Amino acid sequence: MTQPGRTPEPAAAAAPSVRVFVPRDSAARSVGADEVAERIAALDGNTAVVRTGSRGMLWLEPLVEVETAHGRVGYGPVAPEDVDGLVAAGMLDGAAVGPHLGPVEELPWMKRQQRLTFQRVGVVDPLSTADYLEHGGIAGLRAALAMTAGDVVETVVDSGLRGRGGAGFPTGIKWRTVLNADADLKFVCCNADEGDSGTYADRMLIEGDPFTLIEGMTIAAYAVGAAEGYVYLRSEYPDAVATLQAAIELARAEGWLGPDILGSGFGFDLHVRVGAGAYICGEETSMLESLEGKRGMVRAKPPIPALEGLFGRPTVVNNVLSLATVPTIVANGAAAYAAYGTGRSLGTSVFQLGGNVARGGIVETAFGITLGELVNDFGGGTSSGRPVRAVQVGGPLGAYLPVEQFDLPMDYEAFAAAGAMVGHGGIVVFDETVDMAAMARFAFEFCAAESCGKCTPCRVGAVRGVETIDRIVAGTDRTQNLVLLEDLCELMTDGSLCAMGGLTPMPVRSAVRHFGEDFHA
Amino acid sequence: MTSEVVAAAPVPVPGRAQRVREIAEELRGLRGALIPILHAVQEEFGYVDQPDVAVIADVLNLAVAEVHGVVTFYKDFRRTAAGRTTVAICQAEACRAVGAVELADHAQRTVGCGFGETTYDGRVSIEEIYCFGNCALGPTVQVAGTLHGRVTPARLDALLGDAR
Questions:
Q1: Do the chains contact at B93 and A197, CB–CB below 8 Å?
Q2: pLDDT digit string (tens) for A98-124?
Q3: Omega of the bond prior to A302 within 30 degrees of 0, cis?
Q4: Which residue of A249, A276, B35, B134 sits 20 to 30 Å from the alpha carbon of A112, by its own alpha carbon?
Q5: Same domain for A165 and A308?
Q6: What's phi and psi for A284, nearest 5 deg?
Q7: Are A238 and A30 in contact (CB under 8 A)?
Q8: pLDDT tens sequence across A56-114
C-alpha cells in the first residue's frame, strides 16, 4: 500500500496491473483450472492470478475472470491451450473474444439467484483474511459477541433456519437445548461428511469461503457456551481438508479463534477430523462415534446429542450450510433472512444440479422455486440432449420424481406431502435411457454395502431388497414379489434405527410408483 | 504389460513397530485419537499392517479387537499395500447418470483387475468411490490423487498412460 504524499517504492511500478481470477475449486481443477492458471501466471509480470472458489457455473469451468473498469468479465470454459491466443486477442482488456461471457455478475444464471450463504464463494480468495473482512466477514461474529448468548439463540430461532443436512430440524431449537443443558464442557460439531451423490455445496463452501464456516461455528459456540469444536470432514475431499486447516491457522492468528476471540474474553477453538470412507458417518450419531475414535455405528436416540453428544457432553451437531448461514443471519437480523422463502421453509437454500444436466452447478435461491425451474431453466435439461426422465432429489435416499412433478415447489412440507424430500437440495438428473429398476436395485445395494449393521431392518432388509428386485425383474412371481417389496419397504421405514435404513425405501418406492413399467422384464 | 513381477507380499520395514509407536504416542493426546493415528500410519507406510494394530492398541490402552474393529470398519484403511498407481472411479448416482458404470467396466477390462484389487504386477489398484462431490462434471475419476472430470474411456486410457 502506498500512503498519500509518499513517493512510491520502485517495486510498486512493477506491480501487476491486471488481476485475473481462476478457481482453485476441485471441480474446476478436475477440468484443467490449474493448467489455465499456470499459463496465465507465466505470461509476464503484468498479470496477477488470484485463485478463488468456483462461482458454481460448473459447465463453464475453467472460468477465467478478468478485472476491468466494468467489473469482472468472464471467459469460459477456457482450455489451457486457448490461453495464449485469447491473451493475444485482448482477453486481459476484457475484449469480446473466444468464450467471452461479459460481466459475470450480469449473467442470467447469477442474476436470478439470491446468494446469502454463498455470497463470497467464487468472489474472494478463500485464504485471504483481508478479502474476507472487505466482503462483510466477521460482522456476524462481532454482532453476536455484543449480544447475550440467549439472544443469539433466539435470533437463529426467529430466522426460521432449518438443518441443511437433510432432516430439516430447526437449528435454533437445537441450540436452545444445548444452551439450557448444564455441563462443564460442551461441543460444536460440524457434519461435513457430505457423502450423498449429487451434493457438493459443503465442499464448495469450504474450498471457496472457509472463514464463513469458522465464523458460524464460533457464533454457535458462543450461543451455547461451547469451548471446543470439531469439523468432521470426509477423506474424499482432500482439497477441502487442506483449505480448512489453513483457514483455521489464519483465523487463530487473527484472533477469530482462540482463548480471547476479538478481545471479548470468550474462548473457542476448532479442529478438523478426517473421516475414513464410511457413508454412515454422515448420520449424526455415527459421526459422533467416529469422532470418539470408534466404529461409526448408529446410537439410538434418545438421548439426543444436544444433551448427550460427543463424549457424553451436550453437543450442537449441524451441517456445513446451516452453520455457514448463521453469520449472515446474525449480521443482518432474523427478519431479513425470514423474509425469503415460503411456508415453514424460510430463507434460501443452496440447490445443486448434477448428473446428466446441461448446466450443472450451484443455485442459491429462496425456498419455493419449483423443481422444473431448477432443472429446465437453470439446468437447461440434460447434457445428452435426450428428454429428462427422472430426477432424484435429496441424495441416494431421496425420491425419484418424474417430469410430471416438476411443478413441486422446493419446500420441506410440499416435498414430504409428495412422498419425497428436499433433503440437502441435491438434484440429480437422468435422461430417458435410465433403467429405474436398476436404480432401485442400486439403492438397496448401496444400503447393504454402507449399513453400519447395528439394526436388522437395514442390515438384512437391504440384502433381501436386492434379491426381491432381481426376482421381479426376472419375472418370477412378479405380483407377489411386488407386494413383498412394499412390505419390506414399510418394515425398513418403520423399524430402522436411523435414516440409512429408514429412507432407503424412498428411492425404491418412488421408482416403483412412477416408473413401474421398468419393473417388467 | 511387462513381464516384470513384483512380489505381492509387503516387504517388512525395519523399525516399523517403533515408528508406529512414536506416531501413536505423538497423537494419543487428541480427543478420539485412534482414527487420526490410523490415518498417520497409513500415510507413512501405505497401509495398516496387522502387527501395527497391537502396537496402537497398547499405546491407547484399548483391546486389540477394538482397534481391529475400527480398522476393518472404514474403507480407507488398507490392510495391504496398494499398487503404484491407484485409480478411484466414482460409482454414485450422478456419475451413473452419465456413464460411470460403463467407464468402470472399461477400466476393469483394460487394467485387468476388479474393484478393490491390484494388478498381478503391482502397477495399478482400482477402487470404487461413492462421490468426490464433482457431480456436475461426471464421470469422475481420481488417478494417483488427482481428480479428473468428464472422463471418457479414451481419456481414462490416456490418463493411465504408462501406469497401466
A1: yes
A2: 999 999 999 999 999 999 999 999 999
A3: yes
A4: B134
A5: yes
A6: -60, -40
A7: no
A8: 999 999 999 999 998 999 999 999 999 999 999 999 999 999 999 999 999 999 999 99
pLDDT (tens digit per residue) in A123-170: 999 999 999 999 999 999 999 999 999 999 999 999 999 998 878 899
Q: For residue A314, give the nearest of A233, A213, A221 by alpha carbon.
A: A221
A355 and B35 in contact by Cβ < 8 A? no
Which residue reads 475431499 in cell numbers?
A: A237
Please report whether residue A159 resides in a domain. yes
Contact (CB, 8 A) for A236 and B132: yes
Give the residue on A whose Cα is nearest the Cα of B39: A276
Type of residue numbered A238: P
Asked if this assembly's ipTM is beyond 0.95, the reply is no
Cβ–Cβ gap A27/B130 under 8 Å: no
Domain containing A391 equals 341-431
Task: Report yes or no on A117 lying in a domain.
Answer: no
Same domain, yes or no: A451 and A466: yes
pLDDT tens across A321-377, in order? 999 999 999 999 999 999 999 999 999 999 999 999 999 999 999 999 999 999 999
Q: Which of A236, A389, A445, A451 to mutate to test the interface with B (most CBs of B within 10 A)?
A: A236
Measured distance CA(A280)–CA(A377) in Å, rounded: 34
Tell me if the pTM is above 0.90. Answer: yes
Query: Please, what are the domains in chain B?
Result: 16-73 (no CATH), 85-163 (3.40.30.10)
- Name chain A contacts of B129, Cβ cutoff 8 Å: 236
Residue A315: what residue type? T
Query: Where does residue A146 rank: exposed (0-12), middle (13-18), buried (19+ CB within 10 A)?
Result: exposed
- Whether residues A318 and A348 share a domain: the answer is no
